[in-house]
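Structure tokens please, single chain.
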Amino acid sequence: QVQLVESGGGLVQAGGSLRLSCASSLRIFNFNVMGWYRQAPGKQREWVALIASDGSTNYADSVKGRFTVSRDDAKNTVNLQMNSLKPEDTAVYFCTLQRSKVTGRDYWGQGTQVTVSS
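Here you go.
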């Protein structure tokens, strides 16, 4: 059974930092794109940060300059360093592996709650 397990979420004050990690039971180098989405209460899920198999990255404008996505192929983990957090960053954060080179499928984690207090 495929597992993506997120960790590192929690409660932090505005201006603080958190580091999210996603451990995959699949080899992440078999995916074209991986990264993070988030969903705030009452809102649609939105993409936050993505990293491609060539190492190129993309960030939503709302997090650019504050968040950094990275990958560790040896450990099969995808990470999200979040600095200068704002209350509007409060959401459930989901790890995703997209467009498997083998099956073409996408995979999602269960999500981890990030709450930023003002």
